[in-house]
Design a protein that fits this description.
Elements lengths: L2 H35 L7 H35 L7 H28 L7 H7 L2 H15 L3
């Protein structure tokens, strides 16, 4: 690990954790908004309010938090390259890639709502709301317990 990286490693990890918490908050909340939005008539005042909430959550909180989580996480990994040899890190990175895919799917669903083109039911979004939770559990176990 480079001298400069060793001096800031704890800060990188702290900023990574803070970013992940903000990202996860959005990943938990956005599909919940979709559940309620799917139950409102398109073009209604309530629907228009959900559109604003969803857009701001995604663009102001979730996108920057995801980018920061990836950036600080990759910098921390650069400081600890030996972790790339460990099975737990492979599972963690797979989980993070799947979390990013879920984020992108939510962005596409938000666009559908914004254009009044949503065709999915509130039940669909209830199920999708569970995906970030399952992925988070796997990722946290990998990082803390390191079973592989």
């Amino acid at each position: 690990m480079g001298v400069w990286l060793a001096g800031v490693y704890d800060w990188l990890v702290a900023l990574h954790v803070i970013s992940v918490i903000a990202w996860m908050a959005g990943l938990f909340y956005l599909p919940r908004l979709f559940v309620y939005h799917a139950q409102t008539p398109p073009g209604s005042e309530t629907s228009e309010t959900f559109k604003v909430m969803e857009r701001k959550l995604l663009r102001i909180i979730m996108n920057p938090a995801m980018i920061a989580a990836w950036a600080f996480g990759l910098l921390a990994l650069w400081a600890q390259p030996a972790w790339l040899q460990d099975g737990w890190m492979h599972v963690k990175l797979t989980g993070v890639a799947l979390m990013t895919a879920a984020h992108m799917a939510m962005a596409a669903w938000r666009r559908s709502f914004a254009e009044d083109r949503n065709t999915r039911s509130h039940r669909f979004y209830r199920y999708m709301n569970e995906i970030p939770t399952v992925l988070m559990i796997v990722i946290v176990i990998m990082v803390v317990v390191k079973p592989l």
